[in-house]
């Protein structure tokens, strides 16, 4: 029987909070396989991340499929185009029911603002709660990142009215200082001693949570593990101290209702 987040040392309230902060990155090209894995791991994750690979393979069906399973959907497309195109694409994403949508801050303030407005408008027209538009600051695969570039990207995201940011765990402290009230999403974390793959600036999930991350995107450390359920249990044990001890600096409570 799957215990999920109800592990020894975590109360049910703490378990629910932790689950709400974990996004499962389903980076594959087969929706049937992705949904099967999502069902198995649902006791541990509340958000399903649909990236370029899966969205290119199956399109909007990926969003609908995971919503039907009860997941919030993180549509990670990193939109970066002229403002009109981004606005139209974001409007469609909002109407599909995506809870989160990423846009790359390198596109500039005007593009980001168009995406935010489009994403919110699409959800509103579909009668859905206002979703979160996220500005991607610097990719976690980029090794040489200056503080100046990071701060410039953060400021653009804030000026555009984005609801949150995506940043590397290594950048959390700097970003949180400039964006104290935003939702901060952190990909690219790895357990101590784990394979870093193509992540140039990884940190541990516990370090990221303690430093102020609101959502952790968890992928290969669980999805590529020989036993994904066991890997998820190890992850939860790793993170449990953040909730049973000092709580992380979560930006805000959000309405997760659909």
Would you summarize the structure shown here?
The protein has 11 helices and 8 strands. The longest helix has 17 residues, at 109-125.
What does this structure look like?
By secondary structure, the protein is α/β, with parallel strands linked by helices. The chain has a single domain, classed as Aldolase class I (TIM Barrel), CATH 3.20.20.70. The chain contains eleven helices and eight strands. Strands 1-2-3-4-5-6-7-8 form an eight-stranded parallel beta barrel, surrounded by eight helices. Helix 5 (83-96) packs parallel to helix 6 and helix 9 runs parallel beside helix 11. The model is unreliable at 1-9 and 245-258 (pLDDT under 50).
The value of Rg in angstroms is 17 Å
Q: Label the CATH architecture.
A: Alpha-Beta Barrel
**CATH fold descriptor:** TIM Barrel
Question: Kindly, what is the distance between the CA atoms of the first and last residues, rounded to a whole number of angstroms?
Answer: 29 Å
Q: Secondary-structure element sequence? A: HEHEHHEHEHEHEHEHEHH
Structural class: alpha/beta
Please estimate the helix content.
40-55%
Question: How many extended strands?
Answer: 8
Give the SSE layout:
Blueprint: H1 12-20, E1 22-25, H2 31-41, E2 47-50, H3 52-58, H4 61-68, E3 72-79, H5 83-96, E4 100-104, H6 109-125, E5 132-136, H7 147-159, E6 164-166, H8 172-178, E7 183-186, H9 205-211, E8 215-218, H10 220-223, H11 228-244
Parallel strand pairs: 1-2, 1-8, 2-3, 3-4, 4-5, 5-6, 6-7, 7-8
Features of this protein?
single chain; about 260 residues; TIM Barrel; eight-stranded parallel beta barrel; globular
